[in-house]
């Protein structure tokens, strides 16, 4: 899979929530962000 670099700014509370979720799912934060985005975008695509 080809990737691109992207800087992301977020509130500290959201970052902490993301870190907790990534830890619970045994992922790095980047992997958790990708999983969340893929799930949201695929669900939206299927609903259309």
Key attributes of the depicted protein:
mainly alpha; 2 helices; single chain; globular; 48 residues
Overview of the molecule:
- By secondary structure, this protein is mainly α.
- The protein has one domain.
- Helix content is 67%, strand content 0%.
- The protein contains two helices and no strands.
- Helix 1 packs across helix 2.
- The protein is globular and about 35 Å long.
- The mean pLDDT is 94.
Structural class call reads mainly alpha
Query: Count of helices?
Result: 2
- What fraction of residues sit in β-strands? under 5%
Low-confidence stretches: none
Q: Which whole number gives the mean pLDDT?
A: 94
Largest sheet: none
| Secondary-structure element order, N to C | HH
| Domain tally | 1
Q: Distance between termini?
A: 26 Å
The helical percent reads 55-70%
* Strand tally: 0
For this structure, the quaternary state is: single chain
Radius of gyration: 12 Å
Identify the overall geometry: globular
């Amino acid at each position: 899979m080809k990737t691109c670099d992207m800087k992301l700014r977020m509130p500290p509370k959201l970052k902490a929530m993301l870190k907790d979720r990534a830890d619970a799912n045994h992922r790095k934060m980047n992997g958790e962000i990708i999983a969340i985005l893929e799930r949201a975008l695929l669900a939206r695509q299927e609903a259309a």
